[in-house]
């Protein structure tokens, strides 16, 4: 799965966390911003309630069920900045990527 495929799945599925702003920061691969207030998905690098920093490859492995998000967090492959409660709601986001 490429960055563009992830962006397209998020966009077409209307994937957001209601009322929250979440940014996935894939480093050099790009950023995906989920604006739960506006109900939109973009590549904007805006302020977020929660920022998830992860390599694109590791994110793809998590989306495919090959890498457990908790394990990735414990191993330092996944970093969360901001509201940890929002990060916990992201299981539904990952589930939409598998669909």
How does this structure look, described?
The chain has 99 residues and is α+β, with helices and mostly antiparallel strands. The chain has one domain: SCP2 sterol-binding domain (Nonspecific Lipid-transfer Protein, Chain A), CATH 3.30.1050. Helices cover 38% and strands 23% of the residues. It contains five helices and five strands, in the order αββββααβαα. It has helices spanning 3-13, 56-63, 69-74, 84-88, 91-98, and strands at 21-25, 31-35, 40-42, 50-54, 78-82. A hairpin with a 5-residue loop joins strand 1 and strand 2. The longest helix is centred in the N-terminal third of the chain and has 11 residues, at 3-13. The two termini are 13 Å apart. The mean pLDDT is 89.
Average per-residue pLDDT, rounded, comes to: 89
| Euclidean distance between termini CA atoms | 13 Å
Care to count the β-strands? Answer: 5
Number of domains: 1
The helicity comes to 25-40%
- Give the name of the CATH architecture: 2-Layer Sandwich
**CATH homologous superfamily assignment:** SCP2 sterol-binding domain
Low-confidence stretches: none
Largest sheet: number of strands, sense, barrel closure: 5 strands, mixed
Helix-strand string: HEEEEHHEHH
Radius of gyration: 12 Å
User: Per DSSP, what share of the residues sits in E-state strands of 2 or more residues?
Assistant: 15-25%
Shape: globular
Strand order of the largest sheet: 3-2-1-4-5
Query: CATH topology, anyone?
Result: Nonspecific Lipid-transfer Protein, Chain A
Number of distinct helices = 5
Structural classification: alpha+beta
The CATH class, by name, is Alpha Beta
